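Apologies for my clumsy wording, but can you show me some protein sequence, whichever is easiest, together with the matching structure tokens, please?
=====
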Amino acid sequence: MSEINREYKDRLFVFIFGREENKKWTLSLYNAVNGTDYTDENAIEITTMSDAVYMGMRNDVSFIITEFISLFEQQSTYNPNMPVRQLMYLGRLYDRYIDATKQNLYGKRQIELPVPKLVTFYNGKEDVPDKILHLSDSFSKNAELSDVEVNVRLININLGNNKELLESCRPLKEYSWFVDGVRNKKDQGKLSLEEAVDRTIDEMPEDFQIREFLVGNRAEVKNMCLTEYNEAETMQLFKEEGRAEGRAEMIKDMLKRGKTVEEIADFCDYPYEKVREISDRLNATERR
């Protein structure tokens, strides 16, 4: 369940907190978010859906520890639809969990499931406060009659926010420091993104826990930052682009970079059916 699909371009957040070799940082983040003090990183079972085509979805970081399953998502663009997305991720993960534990969903015995903990970490440029996102906010009317509710904790991890949380998890604070450094250097307009990443890595204090990891994976870090930056620019251009053919080209580019139809439709706030049509045409062209 924890194989890494190298064809899918991870975000830097996932690269740091979602890998088997970095489970000590995953555990540190879990403890900081939940006020726990677990010390055995081997108690974590990474469950992230690593197959980019599995049911057309891929989540950021998910793992089981004791009786809880945590779904951690990172967003650099505020998205109020995370309860819907994380509910869909959770359904896929429960499906895999039931199969892996060989439980009978249709039997007379009550199955046992880990308790879900849903969190979205936000580090975009907008001033977004911490909040609880509710699935019921998506219901246009009669939300009080719903038999289902999903709550997602949105946590702003930009430097200057949630100082106690960042102090409790040094890797998270260092990640936020790095993102802030790259962003500031790039926004000043004097450095390219690659130069900004290199400069920020070089300026990272020697005692930072993630420093050696970023230095050792410098090329991958730069590629991930470039991908995230390009996605943000594409999103802005997509909003401004009036011509359908222009949007189609942007969608094709995102598909070629490994994004799924669902991710593009959600990211660009564009009808799923239209994205699917473009994807089908692209696949048909490539098969010729």
